[in-house]
Amino acid sequence: MKAAILHGARDIRVGSVPDPELGPSEVLLRTSHAGLCGTDLHIYRGEFSARVKYPAVQGHEFGGTVEEVGREVRGIRRGDRVAVDPILSCHSCTPCLGGRINACRTLKLLGVDLHGGFGQYVAAPASHVFPLPENVPLSHVPMVEVYGLGHHVLSRGLVQAGESVVVLGAGKLGLAVLDVLCHGASPAQAIAVDVDAYRLGIARQLGAEHVIDVRAEDPVERVMDITRGEGADCVIECIGHWHHVPGREAPLAQAVKMVRCAGRIVTAGLGEDPSSVHFKTLVIKEAQIIASRVSLGEFPRAIRLMGKGLLHPELLITDQLPLREVASAFQRLDAEDPRMIKLVLDVRDA
Predict the structure, then answer these.
(1) Nearest to 116 by CA among 84, 159, 138
(2) Are 131 and 81 in contact (CB under 8 A)?
(3) CA distances from 336 to 9, 14, 37, 212, 298 (A)
(4) Model confidence at 166: pLDDT above 90
(5) How many Å separate Cα 92 from the centre of its chain?
(6) Rounded to an integer, what distance in angstroms lies between the CA atom of residue 256 and that of residue 286?
């Protein structure tokens, strides 16, 4: 089959790899579309070389059409349009046995540790395959995984209807969280913070009541003003690798200052740089810092909201290219153009 093959850092080319073998409890998927995310970029740059084995076929945000089903599979038929949850857990370590399979000690992902959606075919466990409503186009299928992350982040933050919530970062993840927040969690105030006016404009379209440009105003002061000195019920950090803005602290340090007493901070960004936090402030507030990793069974919820037309993937998918132009796609992603939010590959066009 044809696939985008990563041979080493910044060396990705379309070539041929063996077709996947179908297990008895698996389905063989003909991939339709696959998304590029921040993790894919880090892998492309060689930052996952200790984990990703070359040659690698990336793509963990994907779906398509069922081509064949294993002999033990029931309820899934050839021709079904599906999204694939890429998370493969061991189900035997302590976190897995406690129901936290997303925190598995040996967690693997299709498209990271194993061949994924940048190939024409993928064999996936039938338990990880979810039907798409007819009104959800296949070009939107990569967003199921992203919205699943959004659901999980909000679940980790225990976000309740009527609360004030700050989302730090209006990138792919931050905007997906904001979309789910504004159309599935009913916050009293949704506040988006970023350094780019274009992305803040998208945040406004998604329902953010307030948007804060970090370059123009102090986000901590602005959040405290919006909440009348109380602070936000929940602050969600979706930045990861952050760029220094003169006069501004690291995002996590800002979060500690803008969260209310007994509030919650959720950190979902995968940044490499350490962040200094004023723990005295955190302790005095008795606030919580909660980590959020991938998703935990939220795919059906994401699909349900997409099927009802409550979410807005058309605002987040800003670019689409054929798989044969994968090298150009990664070069554009590597350039970090703020106007490119989610880039999707049409894998059918290899």
Answers:
(1) 84
(2) yes
(3) 17, 23, 11, 20, 29
(4) yes
(5) 26
(6) 10
Instruction: Quote the CA–CA distance of 22 and 70 in Å, as a whole number.
Output: 6
- What pLDDT digit, counting tens, does each position of 1-13 carry? 999 999 999 999 9
- Average pLDDT across the chain, whole number: 95
Sign of CA dihedral 226, 231, 236, 240: positive
Query: Given a cut of 80, is residue 144 above it in pLDDT?
Result: yes
pLDDT of residue 28: 98
Residue 223 tokens read as 């959040």
Count of all residues that appear for the chain in the document: 350
Q: What is the pLDDT confidence band of residue 244, given thresholds at 50, 70 and 90?
A: confident
| CA distance linking residue 201 with residue 235, whole number of Å | 20
Nearest to 44 by CA among 326, 269, 349, 348: 326
Q: What is the tens place of the pLDDT at every residue in 317-333?
A: 999 999 999 999 999 99
Find the largest Cα–Cα distance for the chain. 61
Radius of gyration of the chain from its Cα atoms, rounded to whole angstroms: 20
pLDDT tens, residue by residue, 66-118: 999 999 999 999 999 999 999 999 999 999 999 999 999 999 999 999 999 99
CA distance linking residue 27 with residue 35, whole number of Å: 20
Residue identified by tokens 């740089």 is: 273
From first CA to last CA, the distance across the chain in angstroms is 10
User: In DSSP terms, which residues pair with 194 in a beta bridge?
Assistant: 213
197 vs 275: which has the higher pLDDT:
197
